Amino acid sequence: MFLPEHMDVERVRRDFPLYTGASKDYIYLDNACQTLRPISVIEAMSRYYLEYPACGGRSVHRLATQVSIEVDEAREKVASFLGAERPEEIAFTKNCTEALNLVAKGRKLLKGDTVVTTDFEHNSNHVPWLQMQESRGIKRRFVLTPPSGMFDIEAFKKVMSHEVKMVSMVHTNNITGAGIPAKEVVEISHDYGALVMLDGAQAAPHQEVDVGQLDVDFYAISVHKMLGPSGMGVLFGKMEHLRTLEPLVSGGGGVSLTTQERAELLPPPERFEAGLQNYAGIIGTGAAIDYLNRLGMQEIRGHEAMLNERATSLLRATPNVSIMAPAEAKHRGSILSFNIKGMSSHDVAMILDEIGKVMIRSGMHCVHPYFLARQLEGCARASFYVYNSMEEVERFGEKVSEVASKFSM
Ligand SMILES: Cc1ncc(COP(=O)(O)O)c(C=O)c1O
Fold first, then answer.
1. What DSSP line would sit under 242-287, residue for residue?
2. 33 CA to centre of ligand 1 in angstroms
3. CA–CA separation, 336 vs 338, rounded Å?
4. N or C: lower Cβ tally within 10 Å for the chain?
5. What is the Cα–Cα distance from 306 to 6, expressed in whole angstroms?
6. Which DSSP state fits 225?
7. CB 146 within 8 A of CB 175
8. Are 392 and 360 in contact (CB under 8 A)?
9. Best of 103, 125, 173, 174 to mutate for ligand 1, by most ligand atoms within 8 A of CB?
10. H/E segment holding residue 94
11. Backbone angles phi, psi at 258, to 5 degrees
12. Mind listing the pLDDT tens digit for each residue in 82-91?
């Protein structure tokens, strides 16, 4: 199936400095790891360093006041992008990993409390719970992924019970690209009295997310996967839950008053943002949200679907190439994971870069248990975004075919 062209890609590409000069023929398909940044994000960050490079939230001079205003505006933009009721429900973190850790470690679950995840969580939504299992004696249950690669809602229902205090799941998986029926998961979890956190690192860059409509309790995102600065993430939390969440890091900027004996925490979100913040990063985050809003999330989704559909049909027709489940592109958003018979995924990625300047990711993608359970060494992953063109997809297909015909064993 060929979908109509949704976006003016040539116009979009002009906003991305990488596509000028010597690197203009790079085919960057490692977007699930980190995306490129448009010039508007880079300029917003530079403006901070050039024009008002001060500290927000503390000093009262004019430069500091400007920083505080810009930070507040960025927070408002993120809140409205995610459908949060109020900006105070948005805490800036250094990445999605920190946001997930903040909840896993700050909820203070008790011995015997049970946490449900899938069996294909990114290490960032697996290791913190593993640590809580070791240090606090929480229990874990997993929703197993069937060979189709799709989320199994019946298996989820079977692991739920009143011992479950938290359901923490990837909204869109970073290897399979498959999503979960988030609203249903939230409803079922709430019926059992469990809170829900979604790892939205691979969902928020590609679809409309409305935390209010989902009624989800916590939502973590990774800003560098959605045109924003490196080392930026966000945690959304319902205010009632943020109030009882213990900060991961505490100190200056997170407290209203301290004595030698005690410290009074500031209200959320400031209590989670102790220490001098990455102001350029926060301001760049606001600019990235502006850019995504200008393109439109539905247009982005449509564009990626069109690219993935074509890339999938090209690889499906290539001998010795196998596509990881789910089989159909429409279930995989912007992700296409594959293997070439007899080759390690790292070799595939290196050769594609060498012969075609095609950049993809390889290995186990921080989801080791999923691959180990299936005795797989890893996979190659192409992931598409707003600036990728159909011509690039065609070249990607040609280069994969060249690698498979020359090196497959
Ligand atoms: C599904 C998923 N969760 C979490 C993360 C971690 O994101 P970050 O690098 O922002 O900590 C990633 C990164 O690839 C991811 O794909």
1. HTTPPPSS-STTSEEEE-SS-EEEPSTTGGG--SS--HHHHHHHHH
2. 8
3. 7
4. C
5. 9
6. G
7. no
8. no
9. 174
10. none
11. -130, 150
12. 999 999 999 9
| CB of residue 124 inside a 6 A radius of ligand 1 | yes
How would you class 127 by CB atoms within 10 Å of its CB: exposed for 0-12, middle for 13-18, buried for 19 or more? middle
**Across-strand partners of 335?**
383
What is the per-residue pLDDT across 281-316, written as a single tens digit (0 to 9) for each?
Answer: 999 999 999 999 999 999 999 999 999 999 999 999
Q: Which helix (H) or strand (E) holds 386?
A: none
Predicted pLDDT of residue 2: 44
User: Which residues pair with residue 117 across a beta bridge?
Assistant: 142
**Is ligand 1 within 6 A of the CB of residue 121?**
no
Q: What angle do CA 202, 207, 209 make, to 5 degrees?
A: 90
Distance of CA 280 to the CA centre of its chain: 20
Residue 264 burial class via C-beta count within 10 angstroms: exposed 0-12, middle 13-18, buried 19 and up: exposed
Q: Which two tokens stand for residue 130?
A: 């593993």
Q: What is the pLDDT of residues 37-77, one digit of tens each?
A: 999 999 999 999 999 999 998 889 999 999 999 999 999 99
Residue with CA at minimum distance from ligand 1 atom 15: 201
φ, ψ at 358 (rounded to 5°): -95, 120
Residue 143 identity? V
